[in-house]
Amino acid sequence: MNPVREVRDFFTAALVTPVPRDHSETAEQLVQRRWVSAVTLAIASFLMAWTLRISPGDPAIYAITLALGTTWVVGALMSGKLHLGSANTRSGDQDSRAILQSLVIGLLLVGLFLAGATVIAAIPALRDPLLGLLEHARLGILPVFVGLLFLNAIAAELFFRGGLYAATGGQHAVLITTFVFALSTVATGIPTLVVGAAVLGAVVGLQRRVTGGVLAPIITHLTWLAGMVFLLPSALTVWL
């Protein structure tokens, strides 16, 4: 077994070669997806801006976070049909749901982000805003807050890699959804969070392009999020 070839085949199957499918839509369906996506983004932007005014420990964060997740889900479902998708395997099979494949991609992202966090940890201007963001988890009811974060991750993927991705209706869907996903974090004023969203958005966008559905992006996003919630604080304070 050639390790280099195995790694190459894995990434080709997971992020490069699309699975054949027919998800064609009419012009009317695309118009519906686009106006629903625009309205959803407007409402979600307002809710995200509202969360920035909430102090760590304020229980209002739970209601706003739940409202945000609900907005993503409703927008995704109203835009049109969503697909779970199917995956390539190294053997050429296309019946896989990419569960293990997506877990591996998610874990690789966790490793990449934690490595970056150890560098950021030495730079207070980059480290402190992230630690401030994590204060919501430390000062709140951790199981409830984490549960809402996980629900929001699923909801965001349903919208960004589901409804919005389909609404683009073109070959630049990965680029557009990645840009909008990263743009949605700009209001936080945390540059590292914007960069992180861009990296995550690009990877799950490629998974959406390959699989034709939202399942692989959801699994990868949840895996990445678990690593960030439970491991990122330690990585950011490694030099303190």
List the total number of helices.
9
Helix and strand content put the structural class at: mainly alpha
**Separation of termini?**
44 Å
Number of strands: 0
Helix content: over 70%
Beta content comes to: under 5%
Tell me the series of helices and strands, N- to C-terminal.
HHHHHHHHH
Structure commentary:
It is built from 9 helices and no strands. It has one domain. It is globular. It has helices at about 5-15, 25-50, 60-80, 100-120, 125-140, 140-170, 175-185, 190-210, 215-235. The protein is mostly helical and about 240 residues long.
Question: How would you describe this structure in keywords?
Answer:
single chain, 240 residues, mainly alpha, 9 helices, 0% strand
Q: Topology of this protein?
A:
Blueprint: H1 3-15, H2 27-51, H3 60-79, H4 99-120, H5 124-139, H6 142-168, H7 173-183, H8 191-211, H9 215-236
Brief write-up:
This protein has helices at about 5-15, 25-50, 60-80, 100-120, 125-140, 140-170, 175-185, 190-210, 215-235. It is mainly α and about 240 residues long.
